[in-house]
Design brief:
homotrimer; alpha/beta; Rossmann fold; globular; binds zinc ion
Chain lengths: ~650, ~650, ~650
């Protein structure tokens, strides 16, 4: 199903009816409203204006649209932050972050929790059983503008309480933090401060605990709203719209509290800010990184425990990246089908009409500011038409391979990168991309997840493995490939007692005796399958009794293992990229009995139930890898650039 | 006429007489003093020492020099800022900017306005009718060291008052700022804060209003001094020395209040910090960007409504750029003649003698610190000699083309650049340079100016056009070329109601339906005159009924217009550079009936009255484009590098 | 002798005995403890736990180790900084630098001086005559993490007192600072503020005085501890472990107060952060800059007035650089022999066992975290074995050439770099390197040192020469080569009255009439010995009656002198690098009668008494420049990569 983000408070009343009518006409079923409306609802303390929202819901609902209502807590009004200045977040530099944009609140502000609950409860009591309200969104884009981490006094006090709860005694915390180092001992939790503005880096456990605390604050903030919604709006699913690849809080944990995970799809900015080289960025300029949207669809499908929506789909150029190119004509349609192919059940475009004022006036909508149809509108109309040709109710099947994304491991490498340029999210996306080019569908999991039923687990950066997870993996039928640094830290952010890989040693017998981070101006070479491959960035010296599948070459410690393995698990002691990574992934799939295709180049494929999809991100027409008996529902065997094919086959 | 900047307070009394004598001997007519002398005049609160200044003026005047007296408000003394700390400006980071250099005051400090008026009035009452004082300079280099924008409490209070005056009601301000977006609504002007240290960018209208406010604060601060001077020093012109290409405040507006605009000419630092590529910078290393000084002469001639001086001319290397190369020997002479050719009536060198102490001790003077003649001295002597050969009273004629510099449009793109690397001042200089290479004289204008009498108006970045200006342009005889983004915003910083170009639509029928900012690693191509040209940085998708003069090529929306036009006006939907820009400018001149020369390469020419000038910025001797009947007053037809030719012709 | 850094407070009591036994077994004689132990000694105010330290010293001493005891003042405990917050330093941005790492104290905090003396006195009274304590270290790594300069109120008050003592009257300070410039006059020392957060750069004398003040604060802080140690621990030498090439305080001056200078040898991070091009860094990736460790051995030998130790020698990869590669296997041995060859009498490895927790958990030790031997351990065992083959008591002879490192000159160019990229320490290392490649041993000196007995003095950056030093140099037998900027400032940071080079004029007759700093994209050329050489970065126009040895070429002032000289002294008016520098240094050695070798390429040699050493930093086997009658004690004539040869010859 399709939807759109709409802001009745930004438009004159007289436009609402026509807007609603045109939405339905376009084939949209859902409309999201409300998430930035607090100052319209409550322009002054206790002065409440619900009547416009009543009317907006009425108009939209009567036109046939299902309303997703957002709690308006992402942007508290000015009068509120003036009255209670400790609502405002504090930056890492110690400076208060002022009102004037959005997300100007500290998750630890006790006052803000009261106020957020108050406005949420009022809204939910009013609309919880409204027949036109079919779903709820909590707040908006947790973590946008780097707002998970606040260095306020409120955060300091809450952090102390969190630590006391985690460690029980200060001596247990001293042990975990290693405060015998550099005379860092604490006598009580009241002595603890936040880890900013130090002379040098704090102990990494201090940092990681602060990241964990901040993550937990987001979860509890969100949970409070969910509880209110559940209490007064029975039967309506609750969602939150996550940010692409944000790892500032544990999305798996927050996902437990909601019904559907949704996320915001902005591939153009993703390309500009992303992992690719300038040359590759130039090649994909107006189609985006072919794997970044799919990665996130698959990830948030896991976060939503199977249910995933796109709450905001870019319908044209945006305003917020360093540069803001236009998507190629056709990409809005392509992205919509891509989402569907990866299991997304609702795609909502952001936004209905481009705003001619305020911060996002360069952000396209389905309509131009003057209400003319923009390119996105035309493409959505096409998708809506094409959808009618497809069978309903196709369900995304469980994949044969799973990628592990462990948020605490991300906190660990953020706290202790050990080498500039180590970006765990780019490494994971590189792995995903190598698999995607071989046409293999992927699920994401966390360490809490069931691993049974997968043929292969990919763990690019499982820095802090749970013994319990490793035990479950061991007893499962899955094989596993672990990336460098996997198992390198305990939950206390220590090196495991008998050296890394800690609990991973139960799967694979090796020890990491030395670790190097390496600069870009240097290349290591690895001999793998009789070929020398370049690798960069990271190298470990490991000792093992397992089979050595690849070795380092060159002057330094030649012949030491680069990739090792046994029947169950493999480990790679460097960060493979490019053709080394491709070959490693291809071999690993083969080892695990996962069937892949020859390298798809700029083509990508996906399956949903009986439907097969192909997407062409390249500049020339490509042939779709469909079976001879394929029946094409959309497109055909020859796939033009920026085009989509959908078929069934036996 | 020639002059020099002199600081008697920095030298022992016994040097003054000889200094004055040597100035006159060198051929100087003017001397500027006083602008940093406050702590010498009033070393303690109310303790006034005018006697040294009395004597200095006496010595200089008696030697035959005309004194330009500067008000000393650019550097308040330590005792004053200690007594009234709210004089100090506050940086964008919220930190007070301390005493110890200069320009350490906030334009909004009410206390400083009182103090600045007090010292100015005392000085003007004392010297206003002094026969040796022939002109006044207010303060010094408004905007240097990024001092237009202060984020102090004083500025906050003044900004609220300014907004109240501008908008009358808070609801009108809410409308203009678009505060229905992101819950930004304000209930009163007392809730408004300054636009720094936010979580994200504020609404652009908030920013642009803050820039307008800051600009108005400069104007009123300056006007207060001018009023005092006018009241007590009749007949003496008032000037201010502006900074090259500073666009932090509206120079046209401030220019209304003074008699002569002067500016400070430092082409070596201008090159290092400037728009050119490293290769081109290397080529022009010791001659500077050939067009940056001329651009500013022509600009400040407009700001001074015809009267322009150079208050500070670099006489050798300086101290403040990232690197500080020496000008080529001969450049001081060249720059002096260049100024004259562009209508400058007085060139004052900074400074008489190099200071062996304090911040600028690496800044050359006409004399070395030990009073020996430095290279600049020798060249000034030559200019003084050459000047005698020239007829007096030649007046710069009105040019056939005008370039529009609209400061509010600069505020707009600063607030909302939409793409990193969009630098409006570099774009305007590129346009100027393309015209200068064709040997065409240029005037600058603002939207308040009369456009009648010009054959062609160039508007590289008129983001916010006045309907009134467009109407006057329409009824004039001038043709016009507009650059990308022209007409893209209303005065409220909104997109025009029926899409850009707003009022420009009265000249040229088109609509801008999509805007893209593009990264450096990508090149667009444009088909123009049967040739493909590269362009970068910006691309608009426009619809038009006008003639299409150039089209975009490539995969994305091929064939859409890149340049359009009719008999009256043309519009370019990208940012042309290099040979595309050269060709476009050449064609545009031809279209408007403006006669140009073949590309001058490294030569530049200018006319003042009957005098023709040529300047050789290249490394080899060039032939001057003089008529066959030319009579050379300085130099000749073959022009050596770094040399100047002056001739008359029929 | 060899030693190791050990932290008993970080390990369970039951490991100490075995650790001590293994240290002795490995051949170590010394062990350093205590420098971060404050919070273990005094976990709460006045609660003292010496018993564990008593026992640790007992265990180590009984095992046969000599203890170096560090005062624990580099890391005051949390309870102390909570009680007296003015202990904490303040960063240049004005923000307090918080507890949680180390070096979190301000040298000007009067309270901290009391507390540091208190803990030091208690420790020295307790262990001063302990038979196992053989030496003391004060504090740890003054200046690490940029901690010499604090911008606290305590520093401000102390700075005022320091200025009052230096200048006696405020008018003398006004003269020196040149406050007649920009109205900067002060009426009393109470008006002075610290030179941070200004609108623009302060006067350079303000900056340099602040650097001098900060340097003096370090000296007096250290001296207070030395006095306590001397009073209660007779016969034990006192040392401090300096940071490689730190020039934030005057090491010569501090060196006067201690018995032995020691320093911390981390060549891998030194390479990554260092002066070499990326290509050269890649070539030396795992061996490091061949000259940076030797430079510092020679420098700190001078700081220690002949006695130098290595307190921390990297035994494997570290954790703190942008990238942290492994040393090549063999480098720990090579660095140990290199230290010995340059006069170092004790090399202590940092650290015994890698810590599995806290900030440095990626920092290697001789043992892995699980107590297994790491690579460094093996190499130390080899060195210990090899040492037995060598004669004892060989003493480093005085070198024939000396390099002058004047810390006040470094303060001067830091305050007034005049060109981005001017890095005096890189220039000095370049000079050192050019000499080292010719196999010549070097001493370092300061201006206080005796210059007699040297054939040649190299002064790459003597910006502020003492007249007294120049007089002593003049009357000595030494010749001298001065680099650009030498003599360019007086002690007041003024240009000398009759232009640079000030007092250097007594040696060499010239005047510097113009100075240029030049960007990297531009190359100057110099004609020297009939060959054109490229030079960059700096160019002076000088006038001289001396012999011109090299001249600038090109368009700008061709033929002006680049290198000049007479029988006594030479001066170079640019910054030579690469082959120009090599040739200049070779010629200069010849001129001074210093015998050099042909270019050693990647080989380096050194002499200590009768022992000759060679070190191969290259990737291929090289031939050692040993005499035909050489007797090899370690290695042989053909020297493999990363290998060491030691021989005697007649
Ligand atoms: Zn309730
Ligand atoms: Zn008056
Ligand atoms: Zn004592």
């Amino acid at each position: 199903e399709l939807g759109v983000c709409y802001y009745p408070e930004q438009w004159p009343r007289e436009k609402w009816d026509e807007d609603a009518r045109r939405m339905v006409e376009l084939g949209l079923a859902w409309v999201r409203i409300g998430e930035f409306a607090w100052s319209k609802i409550e322009p002054q303390s206790g002065v409440l204006h619900w009547e416009w929202m009543d009317e907006a819901i009425e108009v939209l609902g009567n036109a046939g649209l299902k309303v997703i209502l957002g709690t308006p807590t992402a942007a508290p009004p000015k009068w509120l932050v003036d009255r209670y200045p400790d609502i405002l977040p504090v930056g890492e530099n110690g400076v208060v972050r002022k009102f004037g944009a959005r997300r100007h609140y500290c998750f630890s502000s006790r006052r803000y929790r009261v106020e957020a609950a108050r406005i949420t409860e009022m809204m939910v009591r009013r609309y919880g059983e409204n027949p036109f309200v079919h779903a709820w969104q909590t707040d908006n884009e947790y973590g946008d503008h780097d707002t998970i981490h606040s260095y306020s006094d409120e955060a300091k006090l809450a952090f102390r309480e969190w630590l006391a709860a985690r460690y029980d005694t200060i001596e247990e915390m001293n042990r975990a933090w290693g405060t015998s180092f550099w005379s860092m001992h604490y006598n009580s939790f009241e002595e603890i401060d936040l880890p900013n503005n130090l002379v040098e880096e704090p102990t990494p456990t201090h940092l990681v605990d602060y990241y964990r605390f901040s993550s937990d604050q987001v979860k509890s903030f969100n949970k409070a709203q969910v509880d209110i919604i559940r209490a007064h709006s029975p039967g309506r699913p609750v969602t939150h719209n996550f940010m692409s690849q944000n790892t500032d809080f544990d999305h798996h944990k927050l996902g437990e509290d909601i019904d559907i995970a949704s996320w915001d799809v902005y591939p153009m900015g993703g390309l500009i800010n992303g992992r690719l080289s300038p040359e590759t960025k130039a090649r994909y300029l107006r189609v985006g990184d072919p794997d970044q949207p799919s990665f996130n669809h698959d990830l948030y499908r896991a976060v939503g425990r199977g249910r995933v929506w796109v709450m905001e789909q870019q319908p044209g150029p945006v305003n917020w990246a360093a540069h803001n190119q236009s998507p190629a004509d056709g990409m809005v349609r392509l992205w919509t089908w891509l989402a569907y192919a990866h299991g997304v059940d609702m795609v909502s475009y952001f936004r209905w009409r481009q705003a001619p004022f305020a911060q996002e006036q360069f952000h396209a909508g389905l309509l131009l500011p003057n209400s003319e149809e923009d390119q996105g509108y035309v493409e959505v109309a096409q998708v809506a038409e094409e959808m009618k040709r497809l069978p309903k109710g196709e369900v995304k099947a469980k994949a044969s391979i799973a990628i592990l994304l462990d948020y605490e491991s991300r906190f660990a490498t953020r706290a202790l990168p050990q080498g500039r340029g180590y970006v765990a999210s780019a490494i994971a996306l590189d792995w995903y991309s190598a698999v995607a080019r071989l046409g293999v569908d992927v699920d994401f999991i966390g360490q809490h997840s069931d691993v049974e039923g997968y043929k292969l687990l990919l763990a690019p950066d499982l820095v802090i493995p749970d013994a319990d997870f490793i035990a479950r993996l061991k007893s499962s039928g899955a094989k596993a490939l672990f990336g460098a640094r996997s198992g390198s830290k305990t939950r206390d952010m220590h090196i495991p007692a008998d050296l890394p890989p800690g609990p991973l040693g139960d799967l694979l017998d090796f020890r990491v005796a030395r670790v190097e981070s390496l600069p870009d101006f240097h290349r290591e070479t690895v001999l793998y399958g009789n070929t020398s491959h370049q690798t960069t960035g990271w190298r470990e010296t490991i000792r093992t009794t397992e089979t050595v599948l690849a070795t380092f070459e060159g002057d330094h410690r030649p012949g030491t293992p680069a990739v090792i393995g046994n029947d169950k698990a493999r480990y790679c002691a460097t960060l493979p990229r490019g053709e080394f990574l491709s070959k490693l992934m291809g071999d690993t799939l083969g080892w695990a009995g996962v069937e892949g295709l020859p390298d798809l180049g700029d083509l990508r494929i996906a399956r949903r139930g009986n439907l097969h999809f192909a997407f062409n991100y390249g500049g020339v027409t490509a042939t779709v890898p469909a079976a001879d008996d394929a029946t094409f529902l959309v497109g055909g065997r020859d796939l033009a650039p920026v085009d989509v094919a959908i078929w069934t086959q036996s």
